Structures are given as structure tokens and as C-alpha cells.
Amino acid sequence: MGWLYILCLFNVILVTQAQSGRSLACHQRWTLIFANSANGTTVYGEKDELIKATLSGADVRIFIPSWGPGGYLTSIQNTQTIRNNVCAQALFHVSKAAYDTFQEVPYFWFVNLCSTGHVHMARYFIGNHVSAGINGDYVDMQWYIRQYPDPVYSHTQDGTVISGNVRDVIYATEAGADIRIVDRQLGYGVRMDNMEVSYDRTVAAGQSLWHVSERMNGPNLEFQGDDYWWFSVWSTDGTVDISRWNVGEHVKRGNSSMQQSMNWYADSCWQMAYKHDADGLLEDGSLELLRLAVETGHRVKVLIDGAITVEPDQINVRGGHINAEILSLASKQDLKTFTDDVFWDWRVLATTGTETSEYFNVGEYFNRGNTIKKKPMTWFIDTRTWNRVLVNEKDGTVLAGSKQQLIDAILLGAEVRYKLTFTSNAITHQADNLEISADGNVGAMHVRSVSLKFTPGSAYEVTFQNSPYWWFTIVSTTGKVDISRWTVGEHVNRRHTHLFVKVEWFVSF
Ligand SMILES: *[C@@H]1O[C@H](CO)[C@@H](O)[C@H](O)[C@H]1NC(C)=O
Ligand SMILES: *[C@@H]1O[C@H](CO)[C@@H](O)[C@H](O)[C@H]1NC(C)=O
Question: What is the CA(63)–ligand 1 centre distance, in A?
Fold first, then answer.
């Protein structure tokens, strides 16, 4: 009996140690680290801890209790330390008439949230450079973070090694990892939207596209008015290339380059799921594993051309195949530099091996062409825990879990993804922002989608439409999907409608 007990205990210890090793990196929960009142006083935690976390590459999410009847949780695209405060840009919002409905003529609503309690908001109509208002306000904020392990690589302005090895950034990129940088001079932290490794595998460079121009005003960062997108490419040799483009029009505001001292962070919460050749034939892993992961809420990345990894902004499952819509990719002339004239390098990547590309100038409806190619791809899935907390039927009936579980997760800063089941395909999205309604429902907004269609003659693939439009959606727990459509690069309304669909909700705490 004594031996059995010891044996069991031994097993428990082994399991516990194995799990705690992983839990450090991949099972760390979103943690409330700091909360400020509207007047800037600390109501929870310490501001210094928030600053320390953002300067150590942490991911951030912010909950604002006073936005909407039950509160509002937003994703954050980048953070910056300014004096002894942190400001965070949250850019993915399209204006709403209710928690589950867009306005008829909506605008992009960019917010800059600072730990002083100050929030600055700039609004632009969709598809043109027309402001719909700019103002400041003060709100209570709850700051949630998820920490990264120590930097894998750290260098000075001129690219001299301080610690780690550039090879670890390259290995992590090739393993599908999330890559973040902290610019130590600017106190700036951001996750790369895509990564590319040089042909000789000595340099890696990541693009960050979701940043709107800002300026300091006292202890806060604010939008400037007449705003532009600040596209950047960050390279492991210290080079940063910047290209600036007016919000809503194809007007260049210049380009520049700088040398910055950076820390590079990588998570290890990814595994290879499926690798296929240009004909979509299996080389490693399994399509079933990839599809199962997609359908249970997991994030996905794709490696193409042996060099570029990127996360899809929307995933379509059709006829058992995975189609990844890639929107967060802009044209470069070489590894580290944007082209002079910048265009979107949008793609749909399918597990059949098909890659469809569409090239649109940023800020205008100007199609520079498209290509269809067959190529080998490697697909990665995240190994974090995604809990299915709710399944609602298209009429809102709860089939599994409960709305309260979803709301409880949102109140803890959790990331939310969801799957929409249509008759002959399914779509998965991450929620860019989430609003809790007065009657205990949730509306989840997704901004980065461009209209697709079933590829003629294929039972598996989807592709771009001829005259594509932005497909903004709010999916709610009542089963309603509100859709606002705007021609890519133009202020042209392509209809505001809604439909009803079965939704499965997944959360990562
Ligand atoms: C700031 O806000 C907090 C919480 O709302 C409140 O308790 C405190 O009295 C306020 N302080 C000032 C100086 O207004
Ligand atoms: C701007 O970009 C062009 C190439 O696209 C480059 O030749 C030029 O040097 C860049 N200017 C600056 C200031 O970096």
C-alpha cells in the first residue's frame, strides 16, 4: 500500500512538473495588472507593474466598464510608455447604433487609451479621408496582460548583440510563434502581423501595419487630426522602415528609416499541424488535426515561400479544406523595406495548395492585378487552451454552455473566437471588441474581413470577389450577424443587412 501511494504520488509530481513547464509559457491566463479610475487614480494594482509588463513584451487587453450597459473589452494593437504612463492604441472599431447593430453610415473609431484615464478618439468615415470627429474623454480602465518569456534576442541600435541569438528569432518564426518587439528607445511594444526570414537565414523582419499617427500631449498620446497609417518593418539588424499613408485615401505622407534598440520576444505555444505540397498532398501532420483545431477555436498561422509566416484574419472551412484569408500583409521591395508606392498583398491560402492574391493600392479602389499559384504550405495551430463556453442556435436558443460563462470570461479579459456555421461552409473569427448588452447578450465585432465567394468549379476553395468590399460583422449571442459592406478603398455602401446563424464561442483565459 505504501509503495502504491508513493508510486501514485510520483506520477502526480511528474505530471505536475510537465504541466507547470508548459503553463509558464502557454497556460498563463490574462491577468488584471492595473486599473485606473477616470480621474487617473489607481484603483487596482500598480502602474509600475503595468509599465514593466509592457516593456517586457506583454500582450494587453483593456476592459472599459462604462462603454455599453455591461462593459466593453477591446484588443490592443500597440503600446507606448510615456513618462510614467502607458498609452495603448485600439483601432478595430466601426461605429454602432446598438451593441449588435452598425450605424447606417458608420465610421472607423480609433481610440488611444492612457493609464491616466484619458481616452482620445478619432473617427473616419469608411473609404475616405473625412473626419467624423475627434475628441477626448476620461474613463475607468482595467488593464489585462499576458506575459511573454524573456526576450530571445536583444540588440543595440546598430544591431550589436546584447543577449540571445538572432537564430532564435528565426527558429521561432519558422515554428509559427507569435513574435513581439519592444523598442527600448521609444518604450514601444507591438506584435508583428507577419514575419519574413532572409534567404540566407541571417535576418528576420516583421511588418506591423495597425498603427495610426499620434502625438504627445502632456502625459497622454493623442491622435493628430489629418491622421495617417504608420506602417513599419522591424528587422533584427536594428533597421526600422516606416511608410505613412493617409487614413482613407491613397496619399503618401512620406517614408523614413531609423535604427532602434530592440528586444525580440517569441511564444512557444504553437505546433505544426499540417504540411502539404503544391498539389495539396500530405507531407507531414494531418489535415484533420488542422481542421479540428480550427473548428475548436484555435488560432492558425501559415508558412509560405519557405520564408513568410502570417496569421489569417478570417478562416473558411469548406468541403473539409481550410482557406485562410490574409489581409495583414503589405508590399515590400526587399526584406526590410516597403515599396515606394504601397499596396495590399492580400491572399487566400488553401490546403489544396492554391494561393490567390489580390493587389490593391492602400487607401483607394485601384486593383493592380491578381495571381493564382499552387505552392507548398505549412500550417501551425496554437497550443493554448480554448474553452467552448457557449453554443447558440440561429434563433438564440442555447444548445450548450451559457451566455453567463461567455460574459464571465469577457469580464476576466479573455480572448474570444467564434465559429459561424452556414449550410455549406463555416467561418471563424477572433473578436476585435466585445460589448455586453443590458439583457445579458454579447456582441462581438470583427473588422478585418474582405468579401469572398466560393471558387467556381471547386468544392473546397474560396476566393476574392471581383469588386470586393469590407465585410464588417457584429455577431451576437442571439444568433444575429449584422453586416456592413463597404467597397474596398472607396466610400461606397454595398448594403447593411443581417442574417441569423448558429455560433460556437471559444475563450482563452
Ligand atoms: C477619483 O476617482 C475615484 C474613483 O472613482 C474617487 O474615489 C476619487 O474620489 C476621485 N478623486 C478625485 C480627486 O476626484
Ligand atoms: C523612401 O523609400 C525609397 C524607396 O522606396 C528610398 O529610396 C528612400 O531612401 C526612402 N527615404 C527615406 C528617407 O528613407
Answer: 19
